[in-house]
Amino acid sequence: MSEIPSADQEGIDSVRMTWNNWPRTKVEASKCVIPLAASISPIRSNPEIPTLPYLPLRCKTCTSIMNCFARVDFTAKIWICPFCYQRNHFPPHYSMISETNLPAELYSQYTTIEYTIGDKNQNPVGEFDVKSAFVFVLDTCMIEEEFEYAKSEVKRAIGLLPENAMVGFVSFGTQVQVHELGFSDMSKVYVFRGTKEISKDQIMEQLGIGGAGRRNVPGGAVGVGGYQQQRGMPMQNSGVTRFLLPASDCEFTLNSLLDELQPDQWPVAPGSRASRCTGVALSVAAGLLGACLPGTGARIVALVGGPCTEGPGTKISGARLEQEKHIGKMLFFKMKNLLVFVSSFLGDCEDSDHFEVLQIISKDLSDPVRSHKDLDKDAAPYFKKAVKFYDNLAKQLVSQGHVLDLFASALDQVGVAEMKVAVERTGGLVVLSESFGHSVFKDSFKRVFENGEQSLGLCFNGTLEINCSKDIKIQGIIGHCTSLEKKGPSVADTVIGEGNTTAWKMCGLDKSTCFTVFFDISSSEKSNAPGSANPQLYLQFLTSYQNPEGLTLLRVTTVTRRWVDSSVSSEELVQGFDQETAAVVMARLTSLKMESEEGFDATRWLDRNLIRLCSKFGEYRKDDPSSFTLNSFFSFFPQFIFNLRRSQFVQVFNNSPDETAYFRMLLNRENITNAAVMIQPSLISYSFNSLPQPVLLDVASIGADRILLLDSYFSVVIFHGMTIAQWRNLGYQNQPEHEKTLSDNVVIIYAPRFLAELPSTKTLVLSILSLTSAPQPSLWKAFAQLLQTPKEDAQTIIHERFPAPRLVVCDQHGSQARFLLAKLNPSATYNNANEMAAGSDIIFTDDVSLQVFFEHLQRLAVQS
């Protein structure tokens, strides 16, 4: 791939801050406009991070961990905590410490270090040592083709799992089916009605897990769950080994089960949606894991193919009720070597007011799925109740230490907006695609279970704790985590995201997981008097987690920054500004406000803050826009805000609530570099007269003899200019004689056969290209290579990214060119088409261009 080299800005610490020099007072911090925030990727891999096989030393007062910023008295064997200045004695096994014999944690280059805590998460189940578990929840309300795609990917995923990973399987449609995998003679299925909310205790009772769940079923000696005890199966924890088995033991059983599994057979009336009880299915899966493996790292992998239309309290017809009661009178029956145990069918049909409604839409096809307009007008009758249900489900999963992963594939919405709270708070993954056969789903789903370099590094049971210097307060975190409500002197009064705590739970996290932490400064006069002996501030991030091998690790990252007196001079403050991080933080904060504050005008809020920032840090004469200049440390920030205003995070028009929720979830969990690409896509140009190079994200970058590669994170677009597309359609790249003869600075394209075959009205205009500016023309051996290079670069991007982006290959003036044009600055529109360069394009829009945006910004920033 033709890559543009870039330094690793996150370094060993994986921490980036909006301001790398901090103002001393709360008042000065408020004048900075951009909040004091840090973005951290807590378990991002780095070969320079050492792993120590012993426990860390903690301060006896503030519990922070000894680090390279601690002052050490080697004579007295004492270390002084940089956070609270407490003097701590070294334990006896540190007796040999000296200036020439330091432990690794005191080396200045090891600001991030990892400790091996031990294998505390062992959960022995019979003869198995459980490190992780995966329960697949498969939607059966799909057409045959989609259903086969989904089953095929589940089979492949099971084959990729570690041999000792525990696997369970739940399918759902009109009802929920829990499949028992540990019964060798025949398949067993426990069926739960999709209209009734089921508690964890009820699930345990119906599945026969635990003493309260023992049933007496005719035929032989009764074992756990009412069935004959299988030989060789231990009585202890046998409920686990009935429903969850190691992948190596149940792969054949699951593959056979999936081969026989059919789409939901419940009849669907004309003009109606299928009955799909997604909420009940996830609740049953959560209850199953909570009963079998509480506290063990486990994931619910949900494959959903449509919106939830079934839930507790839904009115059902009398005929259907009679059918269910008739089925419920049978304890079990055999059909096609399948043993079905019917649970939770019997019972009264309660009125809808007695249960939480889990559905997101009615079954009537004439009733459209809720839109942003419906949500704004409070015209989505199921939305709030569904969000409340998934909020309760999230609390249950967090208490159990389990993760919900959502893979939604459908042309219509499926309820991602409602399920967002459960996915985010458990640290789950989310992928949204059009079909289970689409490469976006297939490539992404495979990445989840792959090992080696392409592994996501899925980890479990994480906690994040933050220690701060005096006078620094923590407002909260935006990211996939849940507050542990640990109070302390560092907790701020103002809450942003998950706040009111100094510790957070992360049931699931991986190498790319990122959090944004917001800080405040206490209202004391000054955090550090000028000329004080210690002008530094310290932050420590403690991340405990279980890695894929089941080992518990503690990563300690301690960073320091300088206090500066911005009231005297803002020069030092300006030099510490990180434009990219600031833009991402503002995007995440804007998304949070749009979701949590009713009637929030995001565009106006962004504009006001940008004007305030430029007025504070710009150089100008009052009321003279032409005199306005912006320091180089801020020069790109207005451009980021311009693109953020136009992005899918702020402009929800033409996006469904599901799509908006999906975009925002990924914005909140990706690192700064990837999130910046979401806000301001990268654009690379490929042509005969130069190497691949970045170009402006502007319509003026389009050229007839260029190929453009747009990376907007969610999609990768290969755009062929008009001339390039014509040559490709004529097949020049397939001709052996279509080679370039390289002289010093000239490339000649020979295509005599095509020239002879072309009509006179379609003669080739450019047969000889003079490339006087090409520094290395030898890199371009053929037109075929020019076409192939952006494809290879696009595949590299797709191969390394999760979720896999959508690949769009289009031509200038083609219908799919809109994927590129929508992201470009509209410097040429139908209003000024006469200024368009030859071979370029125009955008039919009334949006202002970046130049007009800057002109208005300059005028407003210099106003008295």
UniProtKB/TrEMBL annotation:
Q: Which organism is it from?
A: Salix udensis
Q: Give every Zinc finger Sec23/Sec24-type domain span.
A: 56-94
All copies of domain Gelsolin-like, residue ranges: 690-740
The listed locations are: Cytoplasmic vesicle, COPII-coated vesicle membrane; Endoplasmic reticulum membrane
Against CDD domains, the record matches this protein to: Sec23_C
Protein topology in the membrane: Peripheral membrane protein
Pfam families, alphabetized: Gelsolin, Sec23_BS, Sec23_helical, Sec23_trunk, zf-Sec23_Sec24
Which part of the chain is the Sec23/Sec24 trunk domain? 132-326, 361-449
The name under which this protein is listed is Protein transport protein SEC23
